Amino acid sequence: MAKRSSLYIRIVEGKNLPAKDITGSSDPYCIVKVDNEPIIRTATVWKTLCPFWGEEYQVHLPPTFHTVAFYVMDEDALSRDDVIGKVCLPRDTLASHPKGFSGWTHLTEVDPDEEVQGEIHLRLEVQPGTRACRLRCSVLEARDLAPKDRNGASDPFVRVRYKGRTQETSIVKKSCYPRWNETFEFELEEGATEVLCVETWDWDLVSRNDFLGKVVIDIQRLQVAQPEEGWFRLQPYQTKSRQHDEGNLGSLQLEVRLRDEMVLPSSCYQPLVQLLCHEVKLGMQGPGQLISLIEETTSTECRQDVATNLLKLFLGQGLAKDFLDLLFQLELSRTSETNTLFRSNSLASKSMESFLKVAGMQYLHGVLGPIVNKVFEEKKYVELDPSKVEVKDVGCSGLHRPQTEAEVLEQSAQTLRAHLGALLSALSRSVRACPAVVRATFRQLFRRVRERFPGAQHENVPFIAVTSFLCLRFFSPAIMSPKLFHLRERHADARTSRTLLLLAKAVQNVGNMDTPASRAKEAWMEPLQPTVRQGVAQLKDFITKLVDIEEKDELDLQRTLSLQAPPVKEGPLFIHRTKGKGPLMSSSFKKLYFFLTTEALSFAKTPSSKKSALIKLANIRAAEKVEEKSFGSSHVMQVIYTDDVGRPQTAYLQCKCVNELNQWLSALRKVSINNTGLLGSYHPGVFRGDKWSCCHQKEKTGQGCDKTRSRVTLQEWNDPLDHDLEAQLIYRHLLGVEAMLWERHRELSRGAEAGTVPTSPGEAPKDSLAQLLRVLQDLREAHSSSLAGSPPSEPNCLLELQT
Fold first, then answer.
1. Which DSSP string corresponds to 239-275?
2. Fold of 353-561
3. pLDDT score for 399
4. What is the CATH code of the structural domain delimited by 119-233?
5. I need a labelling partner for 289 at 20 to 30 A (CA). Which of 360, 382, 503, 666 fits?
């Protein structure tokens, strides 16, 4: 059994932020840190005191984390970015909100004495003496201390205080991973109740020393315990009360949900997985229709999560198409009006949305990417609504006179017609580029709808069913919010955002097959009608080709694709190139294009040129960050691996931002998670001259000075499937609705006794549900047995006094 923790984070918006620029505004963005480790950076929203981000993230991390903090920053082009304020959420606070923490919270001032991180390694012992006992405290080393100096490091020393006496270690220059190995002794009085305080400081020659954190040890507990040695987390000074300052720095709206799951071995979930798969394989002929029952008992607020979990489970079993087909049939069976088909937030709609994001995101990027990039690069003023036209924003025409409203509207229509035409042309050419499993699913949807509505008057209904997902729930949202679909790194400015919104509306009109109802909503969209009508014909031709590809062609294509290792991640990075003697005589980086597959990390000069393998996947031992001071550059990572003869090697790669850095680290960690020989510790610095820059050790092959963070990853649409976790999440959901399942079982039992419930040969609906309830009971017992055998907490936690 393994405990897995994940954080769902949605950074919604900020309000009433203070102005940090001379213009009376700010350029705010957010940095998210887990235990002071930066893992997420939102896009910057320019020139506003009330920014909207709307960005969502899922982070997987060890269950031992302590806090998650949100820092609101003001971006400056010429100087260091200003800190506006922060929101800090301890793990205990998140755990006390099972449905998640949601709402507005005030930003607080960032106090340097609270910005501590890292751990200190201590050996503590009470030794008996002839007159009195003696307390011996050995200060061995520290790791991951906060960098307080401009060089990206600190000059740490330790101050040990007991009952008015103070002793200090030596100063270790330019290191966040110092080693002291110094011992201090204090005489204890009988029945001593005082505490031992171990403080870590950054020494400064000119200004005052900076506080790096402290550990407080309860002497009474130590006297009754055995000698203890271990790593202690550094704590800040007691938080100051700032009630009188609440609201002065503005507020942040957040949604944060912590999910802790105890995942059992795969064998425990097999009965549940087999039962659900059996239902899907039987389809509408199934005895119990458990999928329909799950939909009935799932509330609207958690339907998206349940849909995603079920979809991933069936993807892992090769039954995604069958699962979606069953949902299509269920919705069609209860739908009589064609204009409401797949328009509600049903399990079918939510599952199909998740399916397209998992299976079709790369296809979406290929079709939409060039068009969205062009809109961003042109930055043209585009407006079709006469009530919103602002001629002054356009400037002057070539005749050096202000343009008229009619000219603005006509130019806007021409620009949108060009973008819409380019998009539809790209879509028409993309039939073969569409993933085989997506084509097969759309083909099945098309056939089911045509069977349900066969009349000539419903000729367009199968096409609208496909476009309701492809255009309305996939392409249009991506056009309106390209940042959320990873099409762009930054949010659009107001002008670009308006252009994208109008283009998305046009795509929706095409997806609705240019019905009179869609045209009547916004009459000012009429100038686009010729292109929309042409687009409807193009879209119908595209869908016809998409659903007409034979099963045999699909299988042949899948076999061809299976021979190639698909890229897990790709993109430009800067690789360190050595010059002269030694590994790091030069800190120059060269730009290359990298490809990460399930086999190797490779590179090439350009995306289309011949690839050269850099690291075999099985040889990766760790993927971690590098201290900024190591190269004088930020966002550098290292991939530690062994070469073909088993010698340890390190590749240094630089990314352009913290998000890209964490995405690459996450991808590398996921693909190598099952490698043998993964490192538990590493050096975050570089070996230069005769020592490591981080901890000053002189042994190049010695043990690392910091813990690897191999379990910290970001969830992405192309993540490898985790079958056991998805099964556990489905079990957890079913456990929450178990009372409703029992009530349904009792209704079916009464109906069967009265003869009012039809039964299929061999098994009644209630029998299938009874099987599910027995499986839930078995899983509950398996969890109870596993928890009963869980290991105790680490002993040195008892010695630390919480302050």
1. PPP-GGGTTTT-EEEEEEEEEEEEEPPHHHHHHHHHH
2. GTPase Activation - p120GAP; domain 1 (1.10.506)
3. 47
4. 2.60.40.150
5. 360
- pLDDT tens figures, 328-339: 999 998 888 887
In a 3-state reduction of DSSP, which class is residue 659?
Answer: helix
User: Token digits for 603?
Assistant: 């590179």
What fold does the segment set 565-704 form as a domain?
PH-domain like (2.30.29)
In the chain, the amino acid numbered 769 is: L
Structure tokens at 167: 């002793």
The superfamily CATH assigns to domain 2-109+251-259 is C2 domain (2.60.40.150)
791: Cβ contacts below 8 Å, ≥ 6 apart: none
Half-sphere exposure of 340 (CA within 13 A, CB side): 10
Across the beta sheet with 37-41, the strand order is 37-41, 28-34, 67-74, 82-90
Residue 344's pLDDT band (cuts 50, 70, 90): confident
Span 566-614, pLDDT tens digits:
677 888 999 986 543 434 444 578 899 999 988 899 999 988 888 888 8
Both structure tokens of 239: 């938080």
First to last CA, the chain: 33
Q: Please tell me the distance from the alpha carbon of residue 439 to that of residue 542, in angstroms, as a whole number.
A: 11
Rg of the Cα atoms in the chain:
31
- Beta bridge partners, 211, equal 201
Select from 361, 360, 327, 369 the least CA-distant residue to 344: 327
CB 358 within 8 Å of CB 311 = yes
Please state the pTM of the whole predicted model: 0.84
Contact status, residue 462 vs residue 446, Cβ threshold 8 Å:
yes
Contact by Cβ (8 Å): 480, 360: no
Query: Rounded to 5 degrees, what are φ and ψ at 619?
Result: -95, -5
Q: Write the Ramachandran bin of 395: left for phi over 0, alpha for psi from -120 to 50, otherwise beta.
A: left
